[in-house]
Write a structure and sequence with these properties.
CATH class of the largest domain: Alpha Beta
Low-confidence stretches: none
Radius of gyration: 22 Å
CATH topology of the largest domain: Spore Coat Polysaccharide Biosynthesis Protein SpsA, Chain A
Number of domains: 2
Oligomer: single chain
Largest sheet: 7 strands, mixed
Distance between the termini: 42 Å
Number of helices: 8
Strand order of the largest sheet: 5-4-1-6-10-7-11
């Protein structure tokens, strides 16, 4: 059976961000930004291994505690993303049919739902695919002096995201010339072989933290959302169904099931609830404005 391995290239420094510390290690809610990225990948039951590729000279990774059994680190990062992925793939020595999901370290707001959608839609694809968002805004081409040169039709345009999911053998072949500047992501390398990867609908929140203001947006998105609900019903008995109710609420809200609390009670046979004519629910939610 083919394995599914998530590979996170984290050897860059984030020059556009402009911080002394590489952006993947910047603090975000008491953890390095990278920790939030890894939490989603390591929390997915359909991913067998999660591998972080860092620079051989990395001074930060070992300063943190990474509490995930399936997490591994490879110190083979290169001068570019493509080289880091190629080096990591070579070090893993995977079977050609194994799946590799390459995910940006700085895309720390990936939701479990989007990740699962990619896995489900690509698992039987002959080529592989990526998460992506259709372009919604009007696109302008600019001049070197900051003037509009042209308006680009947005029909058919997509913004590439990650993870990008391809068979290890095909991706290894595509990255043989990883130093080629045309290769800006795994999909572009696959395209150079003449293939057309599948586009899987992503989410706007799965953006890449690139500029300082992006960190504030990521902070807002990753704020803990808690739901505390009470179900008042004379019948049926709710205890056997609590886990499935919590899981369904979490899936609908796209939050972790640990952030959902559900309690059940009767109305002591009083009123319309006590006569089992209706079921009432009450919920308190912690919402974070964006």
């Amino acid at each position: 059976m083919s394995l599914r391995i998530a590979l996170v290239p984290a050897a860059g420094h984030g020059s556009r961000f402009g911080a002394a510390t590489p952006k993947q290690y910047l603090p975000l809610h008491g953890q390095p930004l990278l920790a939030h990225t890894l939490d989603v990948l390591c929390g997915c039951a359909d991913i067998d291994r999660v591998v972080v590729v860092v620079s051989p000279a990395d001074e930060w990774f070992d300063s943190y505690r990474w509490p995930h059994a399936k997490l591994e680190v490879l110190r083979v990062g290169g001068a570019s993303r493509a080289l880091s992925v190629a080096n990591g793939l070579a070090a893993l020595a995977l079977d050609d049919d194994d799946w590799l999901l390459v995910h940006d370290a700085a895309r720390c707001c990936l939701s479990p739902a989007a990740l699962q959608r990619l896995l489900d839609e690509v698992q039987d694809d002959a080529i592989g695919g990526i998460l992506a968002q259709p372009v919604a805004d009007t696109v302008k081409q600019g001049t070197k002096v900051g003037r509009i040169a042209a308006t680009i039709p947005r029909e058919g345009l997509w913004l590439a995201q990650t993870p990008q999911m391809f068979r290890a053998g095909l991706l290894g072949e595509a990255l043989q010339d990883a130093a080629n500047p045309v290769i800006t992501d795994e999909a572009s390398a696959i395209e150079l072989l003449g293939h057309a990867p599948k586009l899987v609908l992503g989410e706007a929140q799965n953006f890449k933290v690139t500029w300082p203001q992006d960190l504030a947006l990521a902070s807002a998105i990753l704020q803990l959302v808690n739901v505390d609900s009470t179900i008042i019903a004379q019948a049926p008995k709710l205890a056997p169904h609590m886990d499935s109710i919590r899981a369904r609420i979490a899936a609908l809200l796209e939050i972790d099931v640990q952030c959902v609390n559900v309690k059940g009670k009767t109305n002591e046979k009083l009123g319309y609830l006590g006569r089992a004519e209706a079921i009432e629910t009450q919920a308190v939610c912690l919402l974070v404005p964006l």
